[in-house]
Design a protein that fits this description.
The protein is mainly beta and 269 residues long. The chain folds into two domains: 96 residues, Sandwich (Immunoglobulin-like); 121 residues, no CATH class. 0% of the residues lie in helices and 49% in strands. Strands 2-11-10-5-7 form a five-stranded mixed β-sheet, with no helix packed on it.
């Protein structure tokens, strides 16, 4: 006699639950040099029930790193099936990337976007390989004029780590270190006057009137459009008909020398 299945019969093979893995958000965002906090990944047994005690690994890319500088992190899911990632550092340049997670055969990802950090002034120790000062936010299109000093397009002269401008209406500047005294000086022209500012002692000297459109060529020296080479505090030109010059402090003798092209001079005995 044939066997007839009844409506209440249990299937021989019930469908197995399908585990899932996903970030709790589909996307994240941050600002250059800032951090993204509270990123979580959840694993479930069947799309709903938490899957506790499972290892989940997460990988970052494109300059995004965890707080300790690494790009990988592994954690064990808690009673809610979650792991919470350490703070994530956004690269200064920002940019688009993705966070990738895996657990056994499961995989998940979430997109991330970062806006570029504002223009900043920094000082990096090349010898030791680390950023030692800054970053300070400065106006776009500023130019570095020497050790820890930048010049903004509006003429503000900015010292790294100091909010108030050294001077305003500056048209030319050069900053240099005196290795003998370990002090930084910036020579600058403001309103057609030549000055030198001591960043260490916060003192200013000079105020010599110089021709319009003169440029600073180094410590205490400027070059006028007519070729006159001017030393701060001295009325007579060092040389005339000069087309190029650079002035620098000699650390061994603590003297300033200016090397120039053009003009005419006899060697001093």
């Amino acid at each position: 006699m044939p066997i007839i299945a009844t409506a209440g019969a249990t299937p021989a093979f019930a469908a197995s639950p399908t585990p899932t893995l996903a970030f709790t958000q589909s996307s994240y965002s941050g600002t250059g040099c800032g951090t993204i906090t509270g990123v979580q990944v959840k694993r479930t047994v069947d799309g709903t029930a938490p899957d506790a005690g499972k290892t989940v690994s997460v990988t970052l890319a494109d300059g995004y790193t965890f707080a300790d500088g690494t790009t990988t992190y592994s954690g064990t899911t808690d009673a809610n099936g979650l792991i919470t990632l350490p703070d994530i550092k956004v690269p200064a340049k920002g940019g688009n990337s993705k966070f990738s997670a895996s657990s056994d055969t499961l995989a998940a990802s979430a997109s991330v976007s970062g806006t570029q950090n504002s223009p900043a002034l920094s000082r990096y120790n090349v010898t030791d390989g680390k950023l030692t000062d800054g970053p300070d936010t400065v106006p776009a299109n500023s130019t570095v004029v020497g050790n820890v000093v930048s010049l903004a397009p509006n003429g503000d002269l900015h010292q790294l780590g100091v909010t108030t401008a050294i001077a305003t209406n500056v048209t030319s500047a050069v900053a240099s270190i005196d290795d003998t005294t370990n002090k930084t000086y910036v020579t600058y022209i403001s309103n057609n006057n030549l000055y030198r500012y001591n960043l260490t002692d916060k003192t200013t000297e000079g105020g010599d009137a110089v021709p319009a459109n003169s440029t600073v060529v180094g410590n205490v020296v400027s070059l006028a459009p007519n070729g006159d080479l001017h030393q701060l505090g001295v009325k007579t030109a060092i040389a005339t008909n000069v087309t190029s010059a650079v002035a620098s402090i000699d650390s061994a003798s603590n003297k300033t020398y200016v090397t120039y092209f053009g003009g005419s001079a006899c060697k001093t005995p």
